[in-house]
Amino acid sequence: MELKSRKQIRLKNYDYSSAGVYFITVCVKDKKPLLWNNVGATIGRPSDTRLSVYGKIVDDAIRQIPKHYPDVKIDNYVVMPNHIHLLLSIEGIVGGRPMVAPTISRVIKQMKGYVSKQIGYSIWQKLFIDHIIRSESDYIEHYTYIENNSTKWESDKLP
How does the average pLDDT of the chain come out, rounded? Predict the structure, then answer.
């Protein structure tokens, strides 16, 4: 029986610890809407009270990223009912000296692991989706997407 080969989802020969900006999407396993209390149409960006207990743990984990990785900055993020979007910057220089930055995979693995430990089991799909931001207009487009994503939940087509 022939095994299927896994689709390559990372850009070949790209150093994911390079200074730059990355748009990341991490999905909940089986698309379960575990991260909000009342999933449905919303008006405006959800407040902290919309987040479920799991959503609050995820929010805390995201906010902890720069404490664990001082060279990684969270430019923007949103916790959706069944996924999260992050706009992460790897700066590469902290306090005037070059730093060895973690890879995006390491940052996301640590964040997912923290959430899993707090909850007691993993709620996440195995992989995550990334996009390397390549221009100012690309950055603005993804920043705006995150800002507006919760207001468009009903028509969101992401897994």
Answer: 84
pLDDT digits (tens, 9 = 90+) for 11-62: 576 677 678 999 999 999 999 999 998 655 444 554 445 899 999 999 999 9
Domains and CATH numbers, the chain: 21-155 (3.30.70.1290)
User: What CA–CA distance (Å, rounded) separates 109 from 127?
Assistant: 9
Residue that the structure tokens 């000296």 belong to: 97
